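User: Let's play a game. I give you a shape written as tokens, and you guess the letters that built it. Ready? Here's round one.
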């Protein structure tokens, strides 16, 4: 009998919790944007500066997340791995950074506030001579502030 009473009480709590969930969710959805800086990484295929489908999705998500805020600046840093000639790695990282900046601008981020740089192979090899993994990317920082 005691078990049935506890089960009935637990069921009542669960059902009543479900009835209050939409009001709680509505409060969360209506909460103002906090406009914190966003950092994202856009990965590329080897020896490529063409945005992948996943890269375009990351850019779209970041741009949508910034839509409720004022974008004060955007930093894009293109990187390359340690394969090939250093000059070729630097050029590839420049093209990666440019591709990401162009895609971000297409989403309406203020192009005048972009700081685009390329690191090439710099930092692609550790002090003990091992290649640093996952260097085929562009690092993006969106500096955000609340809209006035």
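Assistant: Ready! My guess for every position:
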């Amino acid at each position: 009998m005691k078990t049935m009473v506890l089960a009935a009480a637990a069921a009542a709590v669960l059902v009543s919790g479900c009835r209050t969930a939409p009001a709680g969710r509505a409060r969360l959805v209506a909460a103002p944007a906090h406009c914190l800086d966003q950092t994202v990484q856009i990965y590329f295929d080897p020896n490529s500066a063409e945005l992948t489908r996943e890269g375009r999705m990351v850019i779209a998500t970041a741009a949508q997340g910034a839509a409720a805020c004022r974008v004060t600046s955007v930093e894009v840093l293109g990187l390359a791995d340690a394969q090939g000639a250093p000059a070729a790695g630097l050029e590839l990282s420049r093209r990666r950074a440019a591709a990401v900046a162009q895609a971000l601008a297409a989403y309406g981020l203020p192009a005048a506030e972009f700081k685009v740089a390329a690191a090439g192979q710099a930092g692609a090899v550790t002090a003990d001579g091992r290649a640093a993994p996952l260097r085929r990317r562009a690092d993006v920082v969106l500096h955000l502030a609340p809209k006035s």
